[in-house]
Amino acid sequence: MNISSSDVILLSHAGFGVTGCMAALWVFVEALNARPENAARIRTAAFVAAVCIAAAWICGGYWYVHFYPPEKDLILKGPWPFAHNLFMETKEHLFFITAILALLLPIATRENLYSNATARKLVLSIALLIAMTGLAVEGAGAVIDHGVKVALLHGESKGAR
Amino acid sequence: MDSRIGSLPLKLTAATSGFVLAAAITALFNTALAWTKDAYAPLKVFMKSLTGHDWTTHGLVDLLLFVGLGFIFMHTKVAEKIDPNRLIGVLIGAVGIAALGLALWYAFF
C-alpha cells in the first residue's frame, strides 16, 4: 500500500468538507424545531460546521497550491479540459463563499432561535446555503477527479495504439 | 409538556446583522475579484507576489473583508437599521448571484 501525503491531504479536504456540510444540515434540522433544550446543540453543530469548513479550506488550499499543478496539466491535455476550466475555477472561488457562510453560522446561532422567528429564518437560510454550495463544491471535486482519470486513460490508450 | 416558546418576529443583534451584511458584500466582492483577476493578468501577478499564489491572497482578502466589515457594521449599527427579513433576502440574493456569476463566467470566458 502506498498512500502519499498528497492523498491524505486531499482526502482530508474532502472529508472535512462533507462533515462541515453535514453539520450545517444538522443545524438546519435542529433549527426547524428550535427549543431552549436544543439551543446548546445548535451552537455546537454550528461550531463544528465552521471548524470543519476551515479545516477543509486549509487542507484544500495546501493541496491546491502544492500538488494540483501537475494534475491541472494532465486535465488540460486530456479529453475533459472543462474539468479545470469550468469546474475547478468555479469550485476554488465558490468555496470562499461557503467558508464565509460557515464562519457566519456560529455568530447567527448566538441569537435565541426558539424565541426569535427572524433569527431562526436566518439560521435556516445560512445552513441551507452552506449545504447547497458545499455539496456543489464536493460535486465539482468529483468531476475534477474524473477529469484526471479520463486524461490518464486517454493517454494510456493512445500509448497502447 | 411542550417547552417551545412563542416565536415572535424580532430584530437581530448588531453583531448578527453586521456580519450578515458583511457576508453578502464579501460574496459579491469575491466573484468580482475572481472576474477581475481572470480578465486582468497584472492583478493576478500582483496577488501572486503577495503570498506566493493568487488564490491564497484571494482567500485572505475575502476573510479580512468579512471580518473588517463585520466589526465596522457591528459598531456603527448600520446593518441593524435594515429590516431583518430584507437582510436575509440580501444574503440569499448575494450568494445566488455570486455563485451563478462564477459559473457563468468560467463557462463562457
Give an account of the 3D structure.
- The complex is a heterodimer of chains A (161) and B (109).
- Chain A is mainly alpha-helical.
- Chain A has a single domain (5-160), classed as Four Helix Bundle (Hemerythrin (Met), subunit A) (Up-down Bundle).
- In chain A, 85% of the residues lie in helices and 0% in strands.
- Chain A contains five helices and no strands.
- Chain A has helices at 5-32, 39-66, 68-77, 82-108, 117-160.
- In chain A, α4 runs antiparallel to α5 (117-160).
- The relative contact order of chain A is 0.17.
- The mean pLDDT of chain A is 95.
- Chain B has 109 residues and is mainly alpha-helical.
- Chain B has one domain (14-108).
- Chain B has helices spanning 14-39, 41-51, 54-76, 84-108.
- The longest helix of chain B is centred in the N-terminal third of the chain and has 26 residues, at 14-39.
- Chain B is flat, with a radius of gyration of 18 Å.
- The model of chain B is unreliable at 1-5 (pLDDT under 50).
Helices and strands in order, then pairings?
The complex is a heterodimer of chains A (161) and B (109).
Chain A: H1 5-32, H2 39-66, H3 68-77, H4 82-108, H5 117-160
Helix pairs in contact in A: 1-2, 1-5, 2-4, 3-5, 4-5
Chain B: H1 14-39, H2 41-51, H3 54-76, H4 84-108
Helix pairs in contact in B: 1-2, 1-3, 1-4, 2-3
Termini Cα gap of chain A: 30 Å
Oligomer: heterodimer
Number of strands of chain A: 0
- The backbone outline of chain B, from C-alpha atoms, is flat
Query: Biggest chain pair contact, residues each?
Result: A-B, 40 and 45 residues
Q: What gyration radius of chain B follows from the Cα positions, in whole Å?
A: 18 Å
Weakly predicted, low-confidence segments of chain B: 1-5
